[in-house]
Amino acid sequence: MTSELSTAVIDQARGMLMLVYEMDDESALQKLCWRAEQTNTTLRAVAEQLVIDFVALSAATMPPRSVFDKMFDTLHHRIL
């Protein structure tokens, strides 16, 4: 069950990256993996925080990409 949840949140995060950065599925996964490696954080934790942050940012309207860039670059600081 935990594995299914991990896969689901990673898939959500990949979809969000695909939307914002107009990239394909493989590139989105590579970007998530890169961020996890750069911040010494698990892929699941990075994906979970990305989903949380994305929902909070886009609650009313889609923000400019620069806002998303800053959120993505600093998401590891908000992982509990």
TrEMBL record:
Pfam families: ANTAR. It comes from the Bacteria. Residues 1-51 form the ANTAR domain. This is ANTAR domain-containing protein. It comes from Mycobacterium deserti.
